[in-house]
Amino acid sequence: MYSAAPSGMDHVDMEGDIRGEGGRGRTQPWRVHRPQDKWGRNPGIGVRRPLDHFLDPSSIAVVGPSPRGNIGTVILENLLEMRARGALRAEVHAVNPRYGSCAGVPCEPDLPRAELAIIAVPPSLSVDYLRRAASLGYSAAIVVSGGFEEVGGPSLRDIMPELGGMRVLGPNTLGVVDSTTGMFAIFLPRRKGGAESLPDLRPGGVVLVAQSGGLSASLYDWLTSSGPGLRALISLGNAVDVGAAECVEHFADDPRTSVILLYLERTPNGRALMDAVRLARDRGKDVVALLGGVTPTGRRATSSHTASLLSSARVAREALRQAGAYVAADLEDALDSAKAASLLRSDPGDSIAVLTNSGGAGVLATDALSALGLSVPDLSSSPALSSLRSSGALSQLSSIANPVDVTGSASDADFVAAYGALMEEPSVGGVLLIPTHYPPGITEDLPRRISGLSRKPTVVVEVGDSELSRRVRALYDSLGLPSYPSPERAARALRALRWLRSNPGTWTVGRAARGGLEAAVRGWLWPDLVGALASLGFDVPDWSWIASPGDWPDGLYPAVLKVHAPSLTHKTEAGAVIVGIRDARDMEDAVRRLAPIAASASGRLYAQRMVRGVELRVGLVKDPDFGCVVDVGLGGVITEIIGDHSARVAPVTELEAREMLSELRLRPLLEGYRGMPKADLGRLARAISALSDAACSPAISEFEVNPLMVDGDRLWAVDARASAVDNRAAPAKGM
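Predicted structure:
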């Protein structure tokens, strides 16, 4: 019925265990009739979104299972178990020409006609099976195997054009899980050594998209055991075709998804990912991202301060935040944030009440909240809480100042009364609840009573690892109140929730720069860029070429003398700049000192009038994943040491530029610190926005103004440099 299996298959004896035995095997596939799908269509009829072929296929062919056991066998067994439970309706085929059956179903000698192929054989055979699947009209393939171009093996990217539009997930992927369709196509067994290895699939609102297969398994474990449950899992692997952006966009329209949790180690097609994240946020989904490989082990060797400050990881973090994703600090933060965002849909605000029966835990919670920038307001004058104490509903030993400490003698009724009062307190937006279960007055009925009153975002702390502690946490979780084993983790979850509810993202889908600045560029150093700088809204100090000391007017002191030479990237380090020139005599001395440096570098001298102000730096570079990136921070020669800067993917709006300025530690200097002139932040933001738009050009790879002296309403561009794409020669004069 079908042509022979891919050549070379008879001689492979490894994990795939497909060696062929002269056509041994049954030609009739193991089939179970599938009725119309959930849209009332016959399988294969109608338009489906690309990822539906992976998550809800009508039929699946698993290539490579063996009765001796291998990863293909585990995938097959997982799928058959979901069919036996009635969760998966897809037809499941086993493909292996060596065996007649595997896992209780017939093995077919070659690919049957199906919608999805799951390929778990060595790389060379995987390529053959991909081509065969494409020729049979398969819609999609999951390549589980590793050992491709990442380790010098065959390249799947090279054969993608041959596959006729068939979509590929992987290679080197754990697989996929979908809690609504029963798809459980991963190569990890449910049980190992007589113990549960992977928990049963528990539906929830969190979608996990991850580039690491091993970490995917651990996150699945947490989400389905102590976490909020799983909507779907997609392990991207090497992502030769299906990538993170497409996955985010797919689930942006999914009504069962509340949170998309990303683990990414690289971000190719970064702008597409930003567009997808912003789309998801606009559709009411929260996005939590955890980035791996963030240590700056090797920053690019570039010529500008801006480029040396911006590692790819830093750019990715800022880009995802700009699109509206909460970027977690670590794995624990990512999981805790996803849990809070999944269970709590409203905004806790900045003002949090701590309710506890443990004074020490309350103090730790207060410290953690304050350190994270959240407010813990004094509630000692709260009418509702004061009334509880005066009426005897709360003990006179209790404290209502915040933390609200009902003491270790409290009962369920005390907590319920105090919690109800906090629901009415207008100065409180959210609650951090610490009802330690140890005192005799606290029962397992408390979570249900608290849940019945809850109208404000509430996170719960249950410290301890006893059986009852774990049971209490699980009960609060089941009631929609996320629980954590420490005050610090609960505080951080509230902070993440606050960030998500107040930061939908400023990025706009499809944003692009106009470019065009190269038309005003006459070279790549400051004297050649003055026209471009002025066109962007910066001020240019008085300046002149200097051939002799008399070329500088007497009325323009104090002055600075500099060497203009393309080979002198950083003039200060080269000793090619002299500042504080007070008069003609100083100028004569400065010219005498710098003239030999200029001559040796085939350059010339120019002078500027000295200006004052807060020293900033504004720069634009091109990131390989996200394209143009604008960065603002402390200027001068120590900018890389201090590291005070803020970045965004360009072009940025005026509002985004003002946000960047507000993130700087030097911000008080711009706001009139100790009598300094207040900067015109609106004008400064407009100039930053203009630079980010115009300098983002195919002809320009870097553009930096450093230092930019901000003095009230003046934006003095004291020095600047630019670089051409591919190190082109400087533009000709008069360009």
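Summary: The CA atoms of residues 255 and 395 lie 46 Å apart.
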